[in-house]
Structures are given as structure tokens and as C-alpha cells.
Amino acid sequence: MLNTDLNLAAPDDFYEALVELHRDLTPEQSRLVNAKLILLLANHIGNMGVLRQAMAKAREGIIPAGQDNVLRTVV
User: FRET pair for 32, CA 20 to 30 Å: which of 4, 17, 21, 23?
Assistant: First the structure.
């Protein structure tokens, strides 16, 4: 089961390390680093059920491209 409760002993330290990870990278390099980090962490988790729950949670509230009502009213 996916744990969404705060589970980091030092969340500010994690955030600082994450920001530092992306320092001096282009947007494309940042996307590559994010993808690599996701795959490393997914491998560490290893449980497909938990990974599917995490993917669904990450997708919540994200409107698919082309279906955004704001864009429709402008166009």
C-alpha cells in the first residue's frame, strides 16, 4: 500500500538535495535526471501495486493536453 504520510526524517534536507541535483542543468537535463531518479526509486520499491498507486496519485488533477477548458475558451 502506498504511504502518503510524511515519512522523511528531514524533509527540508531532501528538498535542498533535490534542488541541488538540478542546479546548473538545462530543462532537458533536468527531465533526464528526473526520469533516471524515478526509475531508480521504482526499482528500489519493486512492488508494482505500490508503483501503480503512486502513478495514479501523481496523475490526480492533471488535465490531459488539449482538454484544458482555459485553452478552449481562448481559442
Answer: 4
| pTM value > 0.85 | no
Confidence bin at 74 (pLDDT 50/70/90): low
Within-domain flag for 65: no
One DSSP character per residue, the chain reads ----S---S-HHHHHHHHHHHHTT--HHHHHHHHHHHHHHHHHHH--HHHHHHHHHHHHTTPPPTT--HHHHHH-
pLDDT at 41 over 80: yes
The total domain count for the chain is: 1
